[in-house]
Design goal:
The chain is of the alpha+beta class and 465 residues long. 21% of the residues lie in helices and 37% in strands. It has eleven helices and 26 strands. The strands form five sheets. Strands 1-2-3-6-5-4 form a six-stranded antiparallel beta barrel. A hairpin with a 7-residue loop joins strand 11 and strand 12. Helix 9 packs across helix 11. The longest helix has 29 residues. The N and C termini lie far apart (105 Å).
């Protein structure tokens, strides 16, 4: 009896041991590069839910209340303070934005800046804790056929993960007559509505692209903006000149190669904070405050939010080793606005410009037939959740495009095409970006009249230069 029990026990032990070994081996096999890559990046990927008002467009003006339409997209956290990158088309025309983090926490988000041409935008949430930032890769060393992963809010299914390969390294894609893209990555990782603005990851869990579009009617043909291109646009969207009305005066360029990623100083603007700090051509900026710097986007977010004249430690690498400089940001001198800033599509407050001294005001009259002045805040109280500001129409030329389109004195111009119109420079920028030709595509405008938002079209008889 004892021998039988002992034999049974030995058999049981012998039978159990391979199962334990098999389970351990299976666990290691399941820890694939894809699993590890998603684990590394997932906390910095957010789901975006939007609400906008849709209105029928069967008349020149439409003032009737619209219906609420829900939208979805994805975003990538690029700064610990809650700055998130997504596609511009995800936030275009929205009334509200809601962001859900990977842990399920939900925040209201505000648009900060956007770029229609390159279809990128920055939104921001207010969190009491420091948020994880997406691991940054480079698109300079991507290989045709390389494995990649797309993560996003596909059809509203949050944090959906799909995998595929790089199908092409450079595609020019025309989505419609209003939107086209240059130099996109093509992938067969499944990308669906709701994935827009989400990351395309490599197997190291680093973002190498921003998912932007799919080929309608095709199977597994999706496109992403290469991250090296996206980071250049993001640097402009995070510019402290537009968001904080401050400047540093540092002129630099990114170096993105398979071997290195760095920001190299070209020069410092004369009499600028950078010149006073002692930057030299060839310096490699490695840190601004607490932000480790790899490119111009890091440089801008390192300076973002600092007060003017407050010393900021900046570490640069020179031939003989690291050097720490002290930069004190300065406010933009309104007399130098033209050289320091460009009208860009941002949700920021810019320095005031007196219309009487600004040639952009004359251009508004010559091209549009409009005399405009800054709208008082009280005139937009009813629409504050939708528009940051606008220009009050104080005069309309009888034979001009504005008069023919139905604009009237007292209307408040709040938008042209996809852009906001808060000051003359905004309008000047829009006119420079738009082809205004006889019989060509009309320029859509939006005005506030009383308690209604109305829209119409501006048509032009001759090409404007």
């Amino acid at each position: 009896m004892r021998t039988w029990i002992l034999t049974l026990s030995l058999c049981a032990a012998t039978w159990f041991l391979p199962l334990c070994q098999s389970k351990a081996v299976a666990s290691e096999a399941r820890e694939t590069p894809t699993v590890m890559a998603v684990r590394r990046a997932k906390a910095a990927i957010v789901n975006i839910h939007s609400e906008r008002t849709a209105r029928d467009r069967d008349s020149v003006f439409e003032g009737a209340p619209g219906r609420k339409v829900n939208g979805m997209g994805t975003g990538i956290i690029v700064d610990e303070r809650g700055y998130i990158v997504t596609n511009q088309h995800v936030i275009a025309g929205v009334d509200s934005l809601r962001v859900t983090l990977h842990d399920g926490s939900t925040y209201t988000a505000d648009p900060i800046s956007y770029d229609v041409k390159h279809d990128l935008a920055i939104i921001k949430i207010e969190s009491s804790r420091s948020l994880p930032v997406i691991p940054l890769g480079t698109s300079s060393d991507l290989r045709l056929g390389e494995s990649v992963i797309a993560v996003g809010n596909a059809f509203g299914y949050e944090h959906t993960v799909t995998a595929g390969i790089i199908s092409s390294l450079s595609r020019d894609v025309e989505v419609n007559e209003h939107q086209s893209y240059k130099n996109l990555l093509q992938t067969d990782a499944s990308i669906n509505p709701g994935n827009s603005g989400g990351p395309l990851l490599n197997l190291d869990g680093e973002v190498v692209g921003v998912n932007v579009a799919i080929r309608a009617g095709a199977q597994r043909i999706g496109f992403a903006i290469p991250i090296d291109d996206a980071r250049r646009y993001i640097a402009r969207l995070l510019s402290i000149r537009d968001l904080n009305s401050l400047y540093h005066g540092l002129i630099s360029h990114d170096v993105k190669t398979p071997e290195q990623r760095k920001l190299v100083v070209d020069a410092a603007e004369p009499n600028s904070p950078a010149a006073a700090a002692g930057f030299q051509p060839g310096d490699v900026v490695t840190q601004v405050g607490t932000v480790i710097v790899h490119d111009q986007a890091d440089l801008e977010r390192g300076f973002l939010g600092h007060a003017p004249r407050a010393p900021i430690a900046v570490v640069v690498q020179r031939s003989h080793g690291p050097v720490t400089l002290s930069v004190e940001l300065a406010r933009i001198d309104e007399s130098k606005t033209a050289s320091f800033t460009k009208p860009v599509q941002t949700a920021s407050i810019r320095p005031k410009v007196t219309p009487a001294k600004d040639p952009a005001a004359a251009k508004c009259w010559d091209v549009l037939g409009l005399k405009l002045e800054k709208a008082a805040a009280a005139q937009l109280d009813s629409f504050r959740n939708r528009y940051r500001g606008g220009m009050r129409i104080s005069g309309v030329r009888p034979d001009g495009p504005a008069a023919k389109g139905g604009m009237k004195p007292g209307d408040i111009l709040v938008g042209l095409s996809e852009w906001e119109t808060i000051r003359h420079e905004d309008i000047n920028y829009i006119l420079n970006q738009t082809s205004l030709t006889a019989g060509g595509e009309p320029l859509k405008f939006y005005v506030v009249r009383g308690k209604e938002v109305l829209y119409g079209n501006l048509r032009f008889a001759v090409r404007q230069k």
